[in-house]
C-alpha cells in the first residue's frame, strides 16, 4: 500500500509552492541566529497539533515524554477548538490554546488567514520559543511554526518547506502517526514510556458511538441498527447521541430495544467512557479516547490504512475490509463502499470475542 498521508495532488502543489518561495525563506534564515541544542536553557516548548481530536490524543505520550525530559519548561500545546477544554481537563500540557485554522475547517476567508498569521507571528512568537515541534509534514503548518522564530524546530517536509525547520527530518511513510511524533522528540533526548496494562471493567455496558468527522468514514445506519439488535440479546448497551443519529434512535425506540442514551460534552463523554466495558465506533476520536483511558474498543476502518492512524491502546482492535479497495472512489483515501463491505455480524463476533477474552483474564 502506498502513502496515505496526503493526496498526490496536494503533494505536487506543495512542492511547487515550496520551490517558488524557497529563495526568500532560505535568505531569511541566513539572518537568524543559529543555536546548538546543548547551549539552550529550555524554558518554552511549542507543540502544534491542531487538526483533529484524535491527533491530539495520539500525541499525549509524546507530551508526557517532553515533560519528563524538560520538567521546568512551559510546554505550549496548540490544538483544535473541539478538544481544548478536554485537553485542559486532562492537563495534557502546561499551556493549552485552541484555534481553528482555515485548512482544517475549510474556512478560506482572508480574515481568518490574517487572524491565524497574527496569532502565530505575534502571540506565540512573543513567548520566546526554545524548542518547537510539528508532526504533520504539511507545508502550511511548517510555515506557521517558522514565523514563531523558535531557537530549534523539528518537523517533516513531506509537502515541501524543508527550510522552515532548523532540524528537518525525513519521513517514513509506513510509520504510525504516533511513531513519527516520537521520532522527532527523540532528537532532543526524549524517550518512550512503557504503558502498563490496567484492569478491565466487566460491569459496564457496550457503548456505541456512530459519529465521525467525515461522512465517508461512516458506517451505514442500517448496519448500526442490526449490530445493536444482535448485541442487545445478551448485553447492556449505551449509545452516544450525535447530530446525525436521530433516525437511528427512532428505529431503536420503535423496535423497543433497551439501550441507554448518552448526551453531554466531550469532558463528560470522557468520564462516562471510563465506566463502559467496550466501545464500538468508526475511525474517529472515540477509539483514541478509549485507548487513552485503556478501555477496550473496536474501530471500523474502510479503505484508509489503519497502520498509520489507528488507536494505539493495548485493548484497541480494528476491523477492516478483507481485500484491498478496488472501487471507484470519490475521495483519494476514503471509500464508502469499503465501509459497506464490513457486515454487522463481523463486528458482533469481534465484540463477543473481546468480552470473552476479558472475562477469562479477570
Description:
The chain is an alpha/beta fold. The protein folds into two domains: 181 residues, Glycogen Phosphorylase B (Rossmann fold), CATH 3.40.50.2000; 156 residues, Rossmann fold (3-Layer(aba) Sandwich). The chain has 15 helices and twelve strands. The strands form two sheets. The protein has a six-stranded parallel β-sheet, sandwiched between helices. A six-stranded parallel β-sheet has the order 9-8-7-10-11-12, with helices on both faces. Helix 9 crosses helix 15. The chain is globular, with a radius of gyration of 22 Å.
Give a brief outline of the structure:
By secondary structure, the chain is α/β, with parallel strands linked by helices. Helix content is 41%, strand content 15%.
SSE blueprint:
Blueprint (H helix, E strand, L loop, with lengths): L7 H23 L13 E6 L3 H6 L1 H10 L4 E7 H9 L5 E5 L2 H4 L4 H15 L6 E4 L4 H8 L5 E5 L10 E3 L7 H9 L20 E3 L12 H12 L4 E4 L5 H9 L5 E3 L3 H8 L4 E5 L2 H8 L4 E4 L5 H4 L6 E4 L16 H5 L3 H18 L1
Parallel strand pairs: 1-2, 1-4, 2-3, 4-5, 5-6, 7-8, 7-10, 8-9, 10-11, 11-12
Structural key phrases:
6-stranded parallel β-sheet; 2 domains; Rossmann fold; 362 residues; globular; alpha/beta; 15 helices; single chain; 12 strands
Whole-number total of structural domains: 2
CATH topology of the largest domain: Rossmann fold
> Segments where pLDDT lies below 50 for 5+ residues?
none
**Intertermini distance:** 38 Å
Number of strands: 12
CATH class of the largest domain: Alpha Beta
DSSP summary: helix tally: 15
Proportion of residues in helical segments: 40-55%
**Which class do the helix and strand fractions yield?**
alpha/beta
User: How do the SSEs run, as a string of H and E?
Assistant: HEHHEHEHHEHEEHEHEHEHEHEHEHH
Q: Please give the order of strands in the largest beta sheet.
A: 3-2-1-4-5-6
What percent strand?
A: 5-15%
